[in-house]
Amino acid sequence: MSKYSRSGGKYTGNHTTLIPLSATACDIASAIPEVTKITPGFIKAGLKSVSGHRRVKFTDENEHCILLQVRDNASHQEVRVYVTNIQEARTAIARRLRDADIAIRFTRD
Q1: Among 93, 87, 31, 40, which Cα is nearest to 64's?
Q2: Which residue of 30, 66, 87, 94 lies most exposed, with the fewest beta carbons within 10 A?
Q3: Using one digit for the tens of pLDDT, what is the confidence trace for 11-52?
Q4: Which of 87, 85, 53 is nearest to 71 (CA)?
Q5: Nearest C-alpha neighbor of 90 from the set 69, 59, 62
Q6: Which residues fall within 8 angstroms of residue 10, CB to CB, at 6 or more apart?
Q7: Which residue, among 89, 65, 69, 87, has the nearest Cα to 78 in the 3D structure?
Q8: 64 near 54, Cβ under 8 Å?
Q9: What is the pLDDT, as a whole number, of residue 102?
Q10: Which residues are bridge partners to 106 per DSSP?
Q11: CA–CA separation, 27 vs 14, rounded Å?
C-alpha cells in the first residue's frame, strides 16, 4: 500500500489514494473522536503550480458533513468528513492543520 493511500477504519469509498496534503488532513481528521467517516474524492492532477502555497478550504455541506477542498502544489482533491458534532470537529481539524502550518479557509454554501 502506498504511503498516500488509506483504507479501513473510518475510511470509505472507492478512491483510497490521497494527495500528500489530503493524507495529512485525513490523518488529523481520523484522530478526532467526532469524526465517523472519511470519504476521499477524485484527484485533479497537473494543475498550475501554486508555488508551495498549500491550503485547505472548509465548507459545511450539511449538519453532519464537512467538505475539505485540499489544494496541494499542483493537484486538488475533495474529501468529505462525516461527523457527529460539526462545530467541535471543524474546530479541532482546523486547529491541528493550522498548527502544522497549513493555510485554512472557511466558506459558506
Answers
A1: 87
A2: 87
A3: 777 767 888 899 999 999 999 999 999 999 888 888 888 777
A4: 53
A5: 59
A6: 29, 30, 35, 36, 37, 38
A7: 69
A8: no
A9: 92
A10: 58
A11: 18
